[in-house]
Amino acid sequence: MRLILSQCLANLSVRFLMNRNSYNKIAHLWNVARNGFFGREREYLDAILSVAPIGSTILDLGCGTGRPMAEYIVSRGRCVLGVDQSEEMLRLARQKLPHEQWVLSSIESYEPVEGYHGALLWDSLFHIRRTEHELIVSKVVRGLPSGGRLMLTVGGSAHPEFTDFMYGEEFYYDSNTPQETETFLQRLSCRMVIGEYMNLPDGGRDKGRYAIVAEKI
Ligand SMILES: C[S@@+](CC[C@H](N)C(=O)[O-])C[C@H]1O[C@@H](n2cnc3c(N)ncnc32)[C@H](O)[C@@H]1O
Fold first, then answer.
1. pLDDT tens, residue by residue, 163-180
2. Where does the chain cross the membrane (predicted)?
């Protein structure tokens, strides 16, 4: 029993450290690559901001360098509370947007406190074990006001957890399917505003990516 528990804890810290170390190493490359919106990202973000008053705060879990999401949010008169596990990503975010709040934390251990009017889990949830997704999203939804919106991405197909390489570094991925994610969002009293593929799975390396904007009822 003790052995199983210690193996689980070891796996957990390997996953966590792998992604944190890898993102620290590629932060500057990520920052350069993320110099604009991909697909309809800006429209998803507009759907979040359309129900968030000017001056309100948007929670961004797995914020990266704040580019382009936080930059756009601030340019539209809202504030950002960004959370990320990577010191390097946050250093670049702070450099660009020194007046916003940047918190070094894992998403899993972060406890959102009410006061934000929209939330992002953009391309970050799929770096966490799928069994934890509903709990994480439930905490985010709990802190949203009724009518507040959340945007997130999940993997686009049913697939076991895996690792893959980006800029020569290894990353861990896991995801519920889009349908499973929409089902638990409904369980959490959210209605779907947008649910669509950003890219379809190609049956090989690309497992697809699915965008969701959901509103707390
Ligand atoms: C693919 S990048 C996306 C960054 C940003 N959301 C964007 O749209 O460009 C994933 C980000 O999530 C962060 N991240 C991944 N897993 C995390 C975790 N468990 N806790 C906190 N941050 C995490 C990474 O450090 C990285 O900055």
1. 999 999 999 999 999 999
2. none
The token pair that represents 137 in the structure block: 């999203």
pLDDT tens for each residue of 61-103: 999 999 999 999 999 999 999 999 999 999 999 999 999 999 9
Among 190, 211, 48, 191, smallest CA distance to 122 is for: 211
Which CATH number fits the domain that encloses residue 174? Answer: 3.40.50.150
Ligand 1 nearest atom to the CA of residue 107, by list position = 20
- The number of the ligand 1 atom at minimal distance from the alpha carbon of 128 is 19
CB 209 less than 6 A from any atom of ligand 1: no
Q: Does the beta carbon of 123 sit less than 6 angstroms from any atom of ligand 1?
A: yes
Residue 59's region, left for phi above 0, alpha for psi from -120 to 50, else beta, is beta
89 lines ligand 1 (CB under 6 A): yes
In this structure, the residue with its CA closest to atom 27 of ligand 1 is 64
Into how many domains does the chain fold? 1
